[in-house]
Amino acid sequence: MLTSDIRTDFWPFLPPTAGSTNSLTPAAFGSGQAADFGRSFGAPFELLLAQVLLRLLDRLEATSPLPPAADSTLPPPINRASLPAPTWIYPTPAPQPAEDSLFVPQPSSFSLAEVAAKQAYQQAAPAPAPAPVPTPASALTPAPVPANQSVFSVQSSVVRLKTDDWRLTTDSTPLALSDFPRPPGDNGRGMHWIPTTASTPEVVDRFMSALKAMRIKWVTFLNDGANIGANDYLVQQLKANGMEPIMRIYTPGLQPVSGDLGAAVRHYKSLGVSYFQLYNEPNHSIENDGRQPDVSRYLDLWIPAAKAVIDNGGLPGFGALSPGGEFQDTEFLKQAIDGLQARGELGLLDQAWLAIHNYQGDRATADTGGFSRFKVYADILQEKLGRVLPMIGTEGGSFVSGPQDEARRITLVTDAYRYMVNREPYNFAYTYWVIANEAGGAADPAWEWQALIHKDGQSPLVDALRELT
Fold it and tell me: Which helix (H) or strand (E) holds 152?
């Protein structure tokens, strides 16, 4: 409602001479309202109250102008529910978008760990980005580092090195791309492990063989907060088979990491884990407990977690943005970097990497709205930092609603893996979501149709990846 509409409601309470700035005359209204003017205003108290409220409206208009009224001549919004469902869909349990919504968060019933919401983006332009919001300074500090630990840390933009695996310099010099660990015989092929936070040795052995047959070199898996021990055997087998483990520190949405994160990083670093993804798709409401995404809230949690990872020998993952989130991924990334700078924490990115979710749908590999999303992020990083961070895909792929498009899907995914042979130096891995679900002990059937290996068979894509040279 406009302030002029509110003034109309106060008209019966005012005499012809009421006010100056907010004076109302019969000419301002229709003939019927003018005719009733002389006999409509009420008691002195009503008159005084109306004048006070109108003066408040003056001040509101002066300090915060209201937007113009909606144009009634515009056509009504499209009822998307009446449109046919697309054949090509991005990974989400319910592919049909809700009415008048470009990107719809879908609930997960996963009882062990809420895996990443897979609603990358439909066949539509990215959602508009909210306006930038100033980021307040953070008073958060990392947990104290135990004495005699082999760690490095960032304090006051100066890197302090204690013995570790990576070559570091002083004066907050960023790690070079060559300083980040890679697996032996690196080919850039990644795979997301079963969506559970723990696997039995029998499950690990079975699917380790499948990973080796597909020549996978990077594996992303879930760890329940700062839990220690549940993924020991998995990590040991990944390293023994020449694969680089990427641990996603699972939290139910944007919440503080439960437990001693520093201790967990030290433990898994000793087993061979260097990469720790912190939080997942923070630009999506489903990963914000249903709330609207907020850059400041994300940084409030990411900064202390990243410090704990760095101070205990690990490399923190930044981003893991959904190109289909309610908050546009590119704008979220820009504001997050600006927010780090405003808080004096930009140096954390000197030892960080960017997690990406480059789902492709039916787009060709060259399309920057799909597989090649990393090129858009690279431009943003170059603009904001003057350099590009390592990018590791921790989710990706192409999904179809029926067998008629399976051949096309196989072509798209194998093309993406082929691209990685001669990829950009910063583009470390492309990761397919997901190797298995129920066959690996996962409890949520929502991801079963996206799994490569099932209890009663496997996707033709498995053989195609085995044959891929």
Answer: strand 152-155
**Amino acid, single-letter form, for residue 50:** A
Which of these, 357, 469, 362, lies nearest to 407 by C-alpha position? Answer: 362
Coarse DSSP helix, strand, coil percentages of the chain, rounded to the nearest 5 percent: 35, 15, 50
Q: Where are the domains of the chain?
A: 3-63, 152-467
pTM, whole model, 2 decimals? Answer: 0.69
DSSP string of 389-450, one letter each residue: --EEEEEEE-EESSGGGHHHHHHHHHHHHHHGGG--TTEEEEEES-SBSGGGT---GGGGGG
**Mean of all residue pLDDT scores within the chain:** 76
Strand-pair partners of 367: none
Residue 42 has pLDDT above 60, yes or no: no
Q: Which amino acid is at 415?
A: D
Q: With bands split at pLDDT 50, 70 and 90, how would you rate the model's confidence at 60?
A: low
Bridge partner residues of 431 (DSSP): 190
DSSP secondary structure letter of residue 436: B
| Architecture of the structural domain at 152-467 | Alpha-Beta Barrel (3.20)
Phi, psi of 384 (to 5 degrees): -85, -35
Segment holding 458, helix H or strand E = strand 457-458
